[in-house]
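Why does residue order matter? Because the sequence determines the fold. Keep that principle in mind as you read this record.
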Amino acid sequence: MKNEEQIYSFVYSLKGWIALKEDKASSFSMACCGNQAILKTSNLGTQFFAHKAKPETNDCSTGGETEEHRHIKYLVSKTLFECGWRVEVEKRGFTPSGEEWIADIYAEKGKAKIAIEVQWSPQTFIETRLRQEKYAQSGVRCAWLLRSGSMKARDAIVGDYAYSTKDMPVFSIYKNKKQDEQTYVVYNVNKLKTDSYEPLEPISLELEDFIKSLVSSKIKFTKKYSPVKRLYLKIIKQNCWNRRCGGTTKVVTRMYFKEMVFGIEIEYLFQSKAIDDCDDQILKALNSQLSKAYNFAPLRRRYSKTVGGSYVANSCIHCDALMGKHLIGYYNDEDPSMVKTHCIDIPNKGDLIEQGESFEFGKWVMKGM
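Structure:
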């Protein structure tokens, strides 16, 4: 507190901070307890307020924090402030049921409310989840920066944290202490690759760039599997077997399904099925979205004397004669009459989804890279 006004160190430039230190006309006190405050600059460059005398209780905001923890909070707060957010540190709030939470960094911009938690000491996944739920109940979106303590772990969130979901954004932060000039680096962000079997590539971002990207929606959660997958057909021309007709008609040879992984069509993740394998939902989609566009008779279940039962089959577009599947025969992709339709979206029932994974699992992806 400067006199009766609450101030934050991160809003001051280096020149302004020095001038504030030399301001002998004002009194400075700690907002947490009201005791006299002094202005400091750490070896890491953190501008911060500290108790002039050691506080008598452990309730004060900076108790037990390491210099690195305090420095990261300072950098995050300063970056958010420069991005136009109204920032508070050690913000106290309550859930609708009255449970208290204290955010390392809390910020508002318009109707948006966010918190950034810097977890420098070990914390169980269950504890993180409980704290996250308090923020969610209070209408606050929270992201976590978990300390990575070694080179091996710097680019990985392990254990329960590895199952990434949108409701708990978790990233790892690392700084190589052997390289004094290196800044804090944030991992567990990815970029999309459209020309590879593996659609994601892990990347790292300097802390300030990460915060700017996060609050500008450049880093977005992308589900691994989509609730829809892509379907296209291959169609050829055939002469109607009915002698009274003899017209040329188009018949669907097979259906081709392409899986969507992280929003990208993966060419090698596909299935090919005969049309008599489609269910009523797919059948409705084919007839409503592709039949007229490619001038083939709507597919429907028809009785075949040859088979002795009903199945989804082609029909002659002129006389409605059943074009049995045995009439399609062996088709050649080089056939000049072969047509590949455009793709349509259909519900994904999980044929190619890995056992045990849901549509909610995903990764945090940097857009526009």
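The radius of gyration is 31 Å.
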